[in-house]
Amino acid sequence: MADIETLDSKVVYENKWLRVREDKIRRSSGNEGIYGVVEKPDFAIILPIEGDTVYMVEQYRYTIKERQLELPQGAWENNPGADPVELAKGELKEETGLTAESMEYVGFQYLAYGFCNQGYHIYVAKGLTQGTQKLDAEEEDLRVVSLSLNTLKEKIKTGEIKDASTCNALGLAMLKGFI
Protein backbone atom coordinates (compact mmCIF):
# COMPACT_ATOMS: atom_id res chain seq x y z
CA MET A 1 0.00 0.00 0.00
CA ALA A 2 1.21 3.53 -0.78
CA ASP A 3 1.97 5.91 2.08
CA ILE A 4 -1.05 7.95 0.98
CA GLU A 5 -3.93 6.54 -1.09
CA THR A 6 -6.07 8.81 -3.25
CA LEU A 7 -9.76 8.07 -2.66
CA ASP A 8 -11.23 10.83 -4.82
CA SER A 9 -9.97 13.78 -6.81
CA LYS A 10 -11.71 16.85 -8.21
CA VAL A 11 -10.51 19.94 -10.05
CA VAL A 12 -11.57 23.03 -8.09
CA TYR A 13 -9.96 25.68 -10.34
CA GLU A 14 -8.30 25.78 -13.74
CA ASN A 15 -6.92 28.36 -16.19
CA LYS A 16 -4.35 28.19 -19.01
CA TRP A 17 -1.42 28.36 -16.55
CA LEU A 18 -2.44 26.01 -13.75
CA ARG A 19 -4.95 23.58 -12.30
CA VAL A 20 -5.84 23.16 -8.63
CA ARG A 21 -7.07 19.78 -7.39
CA GLU A 22 -8.50 18.74 -4.09
CA ASP A 23 -7.89 15.07 -3.32
CA LYS A 24 -9.59 13.03 -0.65
CA ILE A 25 -6.84 10.83 0.80
CA ARG A 26 -6.24 8.00 3.24
CA ARG A 27 -2.92 7.86 5.07
CA SER A 28 -1.20 4.56 5.89
CA SER A 29 -2.53 4.93 9.45
CA GLY A 30 -6.09 4.80 8.07
CA ASN A 31 -6.78 8.46 8.81
CA GLU A 32 -8.52 10.31 6.00
CA GLY A 33 -8.06 13.92 4.96
CA ILE A 34 -7.76 16.25 2.01
CA TYR A 35 -4.74 17.34 0.02
CA GLY A 36 -4.62 20.43 -2.20
CA VAL A 37 -2.42 20.06 -5.26
CA VAL A 38 -1.36 22.76 -7.73
CA GLU A 39 -0.54 21.29 -11.14
CA LYS A 40 1.72 23.34 -13.42
CA PRO A 41 3.93 22.33 -16.35
CA ASP A 42 7.65 22.02 -15.72
CA PHE A 43 9.75 25.03 -16.65
CA ALA A 44 13.31 25.80 -17.64
CA ILE A 45 15.62 28.28 -15.93
CA ILE A 46 18.68 29.53 -17.71
CA LEU A 47 21.91 30.99 -16.34
CA PRO A 48 23.28 32.95 -19.34
CA ILE A 49 26.92 33.81 -18.66
CA GLU A 50 29.66 35.26 -20.85
CA GLY A 51 33.00 35.66 -19.11
CA ASP A 52 32.09 37.23 -15.76
CA THR A 53 28.78 38.74 -16.96
CA VAL A 54 25.43 37.15 -16.09
CA TYR A 55 22.28 38.22 -17.94
CA MET A 56 19.16 38.40 -15.79
CA VAL A 57 15.66 39.79 -16.14
CA GLU A 58 13.79 42.18 -13.90
CA GLN A 59 10.02 42.36 -13.84
CA TYR A 60 7.13 43.28 -11.62
CA ARG A 61 5.80 40.27 -9.73
CA TYR A 62 2.17 40.94 -8.95
CA THR A 63 1.90 38.34 -6.17
CA ILE A 64 4.43 40.19 -4.00
CA LYS A 65 3.86 43.70 -5.43
CA GLU A 66 7.58 44.23 -6.20
CA ARG A 67 9.98 44.29 -9.13
CA GLN A 68 12.39 41.39 -8.84
CA LEU A 69 15.64 40.33 -10.44
CA GLU A 70 15.79 36.70 -11.54
CA LEU A 71 17.29 34.38 -14.13
CA PRO A 72 15.31 33.96 -17.36
CA GLN A 73 12.78 31.18 -16.87
CA GLY A 74 9.44 29.94 -18.08
CA ALA A 75 7.16 27.21 -19.34
CA TRP A 76 5.16 26.70 -22.50
CA GLU A 77 1.55 26.28 -21.43
CA ASN A 78 0.55 25.36 -25.00
CA ASN A 79 3.25 22.65 -25.15
CA PRO A 80 3.81 21.25 -21.63
CA GLY A 81 5.73 18.22 -22.92
CA ALA A 82 8.30 20.26 -24.85
CA ASP A 83 11.91 19.09 -24.95
CA PRO A 84 13.49 20.92 -21.96
CA VAL A 85 16.51 22.17 -23.95
CA GLU A 86 14.23 23.60 -26.66
CA LEU A 87 12.16 25.24 -23.92
CA ALA A 88 15.34 26.71 -22.39
CA LYS A 89 16.53 28.04 -25.76
CA GLY A 90 13.09 29.49 -26.47
CA GLU A 91 12.72 31.19 -23.09
CA LEU A 92 16.24 32.64 -23.30
CA LYS A 93 15.51 34.13 -26.73
CA GLU A 94 12.03 35.33 -25.76
CA GLU A 95 13.04 37.08 -22.54
CA THR A 96 16.54 38.35 -23.32
CA GLY A 97 16.96 38.18 -27.09
CA LEU A 98 20.04 35.99 -26.53
CA THR A 99 20.93 32.81 -28.37
CA ALA A 100 23.57 30.44 -27.02
CA GLU A 101 26.17 28.28 -28.75
CA SER A 102 25.89 25.82 -25.87
CA MET A 103 23.22 24.93 -23.33
CA GLU A 104 24.78 22.84 -20.57
CA TYR A 105 22.31 20.79 -18.53
CA VAL A 106 22.83 21.26 -14.79
CA GLY A 107 19.93 19.22 -13.41
CA PHE A 108 16.27 18.98 -12.41
CA GLN A 109 14.69 20.26 -9.20
CA TYR A 110 11.13 20.58 -7.86
CA LEU A 111 9.82 24.04 -7.09
CA ALA A 112 7.69 23.30 -4.00
CA TYR A 113 6.62 19.66 -3.92
CA GLY A 114 4.73 20.09 -0.66
CA PHE A 115 1.80 21.45 -2.67
CA CYS A 116 2.84 21.68 -6.34
CA ASN A 117 3.98 19.10 -8.91
CA GLN A 118 6.02 21.63 -10.95
CA GLY A 119 9.71 21.08 -11.47
CA TYR A 120 12.39 22.85 -13.42
CA HIS A 121 15.34 22.06 -15.64
CA ILE A 122 18.46 24.17 -15.07
CA TYR A 123 20.77 25.16 -17.93
CA VAL A 124 23.93 27.25 -18.22
CA ALA A 125 23.99 29.15 -21.52
CA LYS A 126 27.36 30.15 -23.02
CA GLY A 127 28.60 31.57 -26.30
CA LEU A 128 25.91 34.25 -26.30
CA THR A 129 24.77 36.34 -29.27
CA GLN A 130 22.40 39.28 -28.83
CA GLY A 131 19.23 39.42 -30.89
CA THR A 132 15.71 40.75 -30.40
CA GLN A 133 13.40 39.90 -27.49
CA LYS A 134 10.02 38.30 -28.23
CA LEU A 135 8.11 39.04 -25.04
CA ASP A 136 4.67 37.64 -24.20
CA ALA A 137 1.94 40.13 -23.30
CA GLU A 138 2.40 39.23 -19.60
CA GLU A 139 6.08 40.23 -19.84
CA GLU A 140 5.64 43.75 -21.20
CA ASP A 141 7.57 45.33 -18.30
CA LEU A 142 10.48 42.85 -18.40
CA ARG A 143 13.97 44.38 -18.60
CA VAL A 144 17.30 42.65 -19.21
CA VAL A 145 19.94 43.41 -16.59
CA SER A 146 23.59 42.37 -16.86
CA LEU A 147 25.79 42.14 -13.81
CA SER A 148 28.98 40.46 -12.72
CA LEU A 149 28.87 36.99 -11.22
CA ASN A 150 30.25 38.40 -7.95
CA THR A 151 27.51 41.06 -7.85
CA LEU A 152 24.89 38.34 -8.40
CA LYS A 153 26.32 36.29 -5.54
CA GLU A 154 26.34 39.36 -3.27
CA LYS A 155 22.70 40.19 -4.14
CA ILE A 156 21.72 36.65 -3.20
CA LYS A 157 23.70 36.77 0.07
CA THR A 158 22.14 40.10 1.09
CA GLY A 159 18.63 38.91 0.28
CA GLU A 160 18.07 41.39 -2.53
CA ILE A 161 17.41 38.47 -4.89
CA LYS A 162 14.63 36.35 -3.40
CA ASP A 163 13.68 34.02 -6.26
CA ALA A 164 14.36 30.53 -4.92
CA SER A 165 14.82 28.93 -8.34
CA THR A 166 17.39 31.60 -9.29
CA CYS A 167 19.33 31.04 -6.06
CA ASN A 168 19.13 27.28 -6.46
CA ALA A 169 20.16 27.33 -10.14
CA LEU A 170 23.26 29.40 -9.39
CA GLY A 171 24.17 27.28 -6.36
CA LEU A 172 23.77 23.96 -8.17
CA ALA A 173 25.69 25.23 -11.24
CA MET A 174 28.53 26.31 -8.94
CA LEU A 175 28.52 23.07 -6.93
CA LYS A 176 28.66 21.01 -10.13
CA GLY A 177 31.49 23.13 -11.58
CA PHE A 178 29.59 24.65 -14.51
CA ILE A 179 30.70 28.15 -13.49
Automatic annotation (TrEMBL):
Q: Which cofactor does it need?
A: Mg(2+)
Q: Which InterPro entries does the entry mention? A: NUDIX_hydrolase-like_dom_sf, NUDIX_hydrolase_dom
Question: What does UniProt give as the signal peptide span?
Answer: none
GO annotations under biological process?
A: nucleoside phosphate metabolic process; ribose phosphate metabolic process
What keywords tag this UniProt record? Hydrolase
Q: Where is the Nudix hydrolase domain?
A: 38-169
Q: Which domain of life is it from?
A: Bacteria
Q: Is Hydrolase among the key words of this record?
A: yes
**Is Ribonucleoprotein among this UniProt entry's keywords?**
no
GO CC terms: cytosol
The protein's annotated catalytic reaction(s) are: GDP-alpha-D-mannose + H2O = alpha-D-mannose 1-phosphate + GMP + 2 H(+)
Q: Extract the GO molecular function terms from the UniProt entry.
A: hydrolase activity
- Provide the family line: Belongs to the Nudix hydrolase family. NudK subfamily.
Protein's name according to its UniProt entry: GDP-mannose pyrophosphatase
Q: Which organism is it from?
A: Alteromonas marina
